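so im writing up the methods section and need the Single-strand-selective monofunctional uracil-DNA glycosylase 1 record in one place, dumping it here so i stop losing it
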Amino acid sequence: MFAMLANPAAFTEGLAGGEPEPGLVSNTANGTPASRFLQAELELNAHLRRLSFSEPVRYVYNPLDYAWDTHRCYVEKYCLPGQRVLFLGMNPGPFGMAQTGVPFGEVRSVVDWLKILGEVGRPDEEHPKRRITGLSCTQSEVSGARFWGFFRKLCGEPTRFFQHCFVHNLCPLIFMSATGKNLTPPELPAAEREALLSLCDSALCQVVQALNVSMVIGVGRVAEQRARRALSAAGVDVRVE
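--- predicted struct ---
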């Protein structure tokens, strides 16, 4: 993804003008992009609560439950009309969105650059080595620091980035083994993985239509492949990179 954006001038100029690509799905739903986005997430949450996970999964955190306050702050502040590009990650990291409710949410970036405020609770069951301390977390999420650091350097102010782009994760859940090891969705048992990701795929299609973006950029190969497959199967004609 960063290689694709190696030419900052071309990237920002490309976002600054031009019409949406032909075939872009129109969205006639009522409400703001932020309200439609949050509604899609609430619907996904309701479905995810019905799932269960077996070994090697021992702990499941959902920051859209316990960090909803900060997550909603992020969405209401930065999910805006006219955004053309959706950056898509796979799922939260233990020191990023799991702590802050913000995708790639390395704490310093969230607090100092994005200026996100709010209360972060705790999951019902926590691993003793993976406590949720919210915006007070002192450990840095390397991928999040890199992601937001790149755009901070490129754009200067968040408003310039979010004028054209939004950032989202395909799956809102974080999985851990009994030892506290982080487990990604591809590491789940096959049937459980497909049950999970089919729900997330459907929610992604809903989100893309709600935001009316013309491009989805997968941050990581798995996110890109899932997005390409899900959007193509649903007939949502957007560019996926």
